[in-house]
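Limitations

Structures in this collection are predictions, not experimental determinations, and the ligand pose is part of the prediction. Treat each record accordingly. The example that follows, with thiamine diphosphate as the small molecule, is included so readers can see exactly what is and is not provided: the inputs are given verbatim, and the output is the predicted complex.
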Amino acid sequence: MSAKSGSATAERAEQAIKPSQNLSKEDCLELFKQLYLARYFDVRLIKEKKRGRLRGTLYSSHNQEAILVGSLFGLAATDWISPIHRDMPAFFMKDFRFGVDNPNRLGMSIEEVCCQVWGKEGSPGRARDNWSHIGSKSKKIIHSTSMLAGTIPVAAGVVYADRMQGGNAVCLTYNGEGSTAQGIFHEAINYAAVHKLPVITIVENNQWAYGTPVEMECPTPDVADRAKGYGILGLIADGQDVFDVYDKVMQAVEHSRAGNGPSIVECKTFRAYGHGDHDDDRAMKYRPAKEIEEGRKRDPIAVCRKRLIELGYLTGADKTSYMAEGKNAGESSNDDFPPEIIEFMNKGIEFAMNSPMPAAEEAEQWVFWDGDKP
Amino acid sequence: MSATTVAPVAVKKNYLTALNEALAEEMARNPLMLCQGEDIGKLGGAFGVTEGLQATYGDHRVVDMPISEAAIIGSAVGMALNGMTVMAEMQFIDFISCGFDQIVNMMATYHYRTAGEVHIPVVVRGPAGAYGGGALYHSQMNEAWFCNSPGLKVVCPSTPYDAKGMLKAALRDGNPVIFYEIKELYRKREIEEELPTEDYIVPLGKAAIRREGKDITLVSYGQNVYHCLDAAAELENVGVSAEVIDLRSLVPLDEETVFNSIAKTSRVIVVNEAPMTCGFAGELVARISTKAFHLLDAPPSRVTRMDTPVPWVKPLELHVLPTVDKIVAEAMRIVKF
Ligand SMILES: Cc1ncc(C[n+]2csc(CCOP(=O)(O)OP(=O)(O)O)c2C)c(N)n1
Ligand SMILES: [Mg+2]
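Predicted complex:
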């Protein structure tokens, strides 16, 4: 991983005491577990597809899990998120540490998310659009479209409305570095900066936008540097390190909560596979093999494990149990993951596979709202 | 009221004042309503539609936005998602193209793709229409783009009464509405009228018959309604009785009023100032052809703008737009068919 950091913006923003230093042992172990959960979700879907039990394109978040886990961990239940195609686990991992079985948890259930992946009636959007194009008003997850960076202005509006109604919520929006070339990326951040809106634009810089390398999308090495042009906070995180992501995002969150407005948090990472699984074979051609090998070396699970061992939170056999790191979906097996995580996914998948598709006539429904009729 | 109070003198109001009153009254009625757009606060809008609103409701509810139609519309969608009703002004409706993606992909589809979980009470409104020498980028009627995007209501009032009642209806509708205002009508003296003092709305999706007739139906909306009325007056001089229908709302469309009229006249021309190809007139003619063919004695016809941009100087502008003369000529052809 070529985590380029050390820009002026990033240095200025470095804090004395990092929020992650206040995390308990329990929290740290929870973060570790969540990395496995996000990884297993991805691995398992790839396996399901290979077994012919699943259709549709998969956009893997493999190797980028620390960004999701680290950014979601410190949010309050009142905060909003806006995940897109690379962030599928975020839909059920929002508010996750408050307990999987907690009915008041403000994330989707794994059953709902699996119903979405499988195109079943139980999907939050009743399978009207595919993959990550779901959301939930009550769970404060903005519904994405395909249009890259298109939810940033929506996020800005959501928090504007929240502030008008006396709230203090922030909204995290997730975006690839490729989407930063969109006009709306600028237009929305400019608007949010003018109004000091608590919108945190996370840029998952995985070095590739489909088949185009980062230097053909972004004219400068660090997207976070653009923050200067808006007079907002710009931070760079090591996207492989869940603690660093947590620190930078919490810094941005605190900045917003204090009324200082938006920020850009760029997380340097690396795309493990092709753009989607339809692109895996071709990606082997347009991406140098060495680059992939290098990228694999800093697996977020390995980086976290190392830290937990240093902290003394993993000892004895725990240090080497469930070695999921460095393996792609084909190479990893259920032995690489804690059983409760496998069980969690089993539940979701079984539910989805046993669920019906929505009735055909639903295709005509909900073009217009017809008042508060059922 | 005491018996000595003098009855207020009836005041005639213009189209612009009607819109301004609608916004002011809805802002008063709904504390979760907000207006945003370019120069709408301090200045009161390029034409003055939002005059005085910021002074009354503050700069958090009447917001001067950076020049980004996409941010104006996209953030309105987010506000609506989080419980608010938003009026988003386009300084000219021509600039709506810069917010196109946020309208057609984000806003229009929201209710559908969330299977009814979310609905979006946002009205995108702005000055539209030609005949004023506004040239290519201050003259457009681009309503067809949005009629072709399921999930949007598309309306266009032609009188002060409708302007106020329909804007209020749009703001209470709960669906995204693209609201075409005719800037040439904003301050037109001839159409000023008294407005009810009590609260009222004009429901979206109901056409109005502006003139009764029995030989031919002229269907239109916006300022072309007045061209049709003038044409009808001329036609009367040559013994042709024309009925004039003001659609007011394109989506939803009041087909019934149109078909009922054709049942009477058996001839119809649809007039609009948008270009011909794939314009709304074409859509209505297609519906008439499939659903009301049996009522017709002549092919349904249309008078529209030519398939050109709107040029600047008068001779060029009028050359491409529907005019009274063109409507009369086409009506005579259809009547003699
Ligand atoms: C506006 C828009 N143009 C094109 C696409 C097609 N597309 C989908 S993902 C993608 C690449 C995105 O790259 P990046 O933003 O870096 O995100 P990543 O996939 O790397 O996470 C493209 C071109 C799209 N979804 N939206
Ligand atoms: Mg990318």
